[in-house]
Amino acid sequence: SSSGLRISVGKNNSQNDLLTTKLAYKSDIWLHTQKIHGSHVILWLEGGEADAQSLTEAAILAATFSQAGDSTRVPVDYTPVKYVKKPAGARPGMVVYTTYETAWVAPDGELAKKLRTPARVLPMDLGDPASFEEYKKLLEEEKPLISTLCNVAGFGRFALFTETPLDVNLSMIDINDKALVAMTQLSLPYMKRGSRVINLDSL
To answer: Alpha helices of the chain — where are they, by DSSP H?
Structure first.
């Protein structure tokens, strides 16, 4: 949002289901157009409170990414996630909710473009300690809000342990273990409540 709170919009039923029933905290705000098919929208409070500007922008996004996207005035219901329930056996994205309020807003595609956060690529050699120093310096300069840290780097070698060169085995430890610890420790100071660390591994 313009105030700095994170807003997520589901692009399909599966994403709607994931956002609302798996990722969002009970205190986060869920928004959806009233009796109109559309995206689930989550306003992440991250331990704080929703300001009026962020709530309005989240409602506008809910209206924009709905079947009423071409309308001029759309009702959007909003409520804490704890009041949103998925009935047993319901298809992905199907929920019921109570204790809500309704905002009337106008869809705005330009706002959606303005608030969209582009992905940023940071080339790093996770086997080189100098890369972590560069990453630390970047964080200190920009002080970003990191919402999700996904540690997925790693490599392996299919060979007998005794036949694998020592430098290769040590490199695997550097990438698979040391890099995970370093990235997590450096990133945590820039994460708030509601942020997540996801570690992926191969078995």
So the answer is: 13-18, 52-64, 109-115, 129-142, 166-173, 179-187
- Residues 6+ away with beta carbon under 8 Å from 5: 43, 44, 45, 46, 48, 50, 51, 54
Give the HSE-up count for residue 4: Cα atoms under 13 Å, Cβ half-sphere: 8
Label residue 116 by pLDDT band (50, 70, 90).
confident
- Phi, psi dihedral angles at 105 (to 5 degrees): -140, 165
Give the Cβ contact number of residue 111 at 10 Å: 17
DSSP class of residue 74?
Answer: E
Per-residue confidence band for 117, with pLDDT thresholds at 50, 70 and 90:
confident
User: What is the average pLDDT score of the chain?
Assistant: 92
SS3 of residue 54 by DSSP: helix
Q: How many CB atoms lie within 10 A of CB 194?
A: 18
* Packed helices 179-187 and 129-142: angle between N→C axes, nearest 10 degrees: 10
Distance CA 76, CA 57 (A): 11
